[in-house]
Write a structure and sequence with these properties.
mainly alpha; 57% helix; 91 residues
């Protein structure tokens, strides 16, 4: 059962990323759970402005706080790290 909740959470995170950043050519199937969100090649190619928008969206949509820039950097590495953070805060 826990795996199903986790799969659903990751799908919700991917949808939030796409909606928040208005990514019209990307579907949730295009975003691998371990795909780095930031950086150069073989990443989603997000930038620091995207990071700010994502922090606000994660806090709003999942009712968690990310109040430290270093923490945000760790949390926003990939979909897996966002899901782990959300799950750790909701236990």
């Amino acid at each position: 059962m826990a795996g199903n909740i986790e799969t659903e959470l990751k799908a919700d995170i991917k949808k939030m990323i796409i909606d928040t950043l208005n990514m019209q050519d990307i579907t949730i199937d295009d975003i691998e759970d371990d795909l780095p969100l930031f950086g150069g090649d073989n990443t989603l190619g997000l930038d620091s402005i995207d990071a700010i928008e994502l922090v606000m969206a994660v806090q709003r949509d999942f009712k968690v706080r990310i109040d430290d820039q270093n923490l945000a950097r760790e949390v926003l590495k990939d979909v897996n790290s966002i899901a782990e953070f959300i799950q750790s805060k909701s236990e």
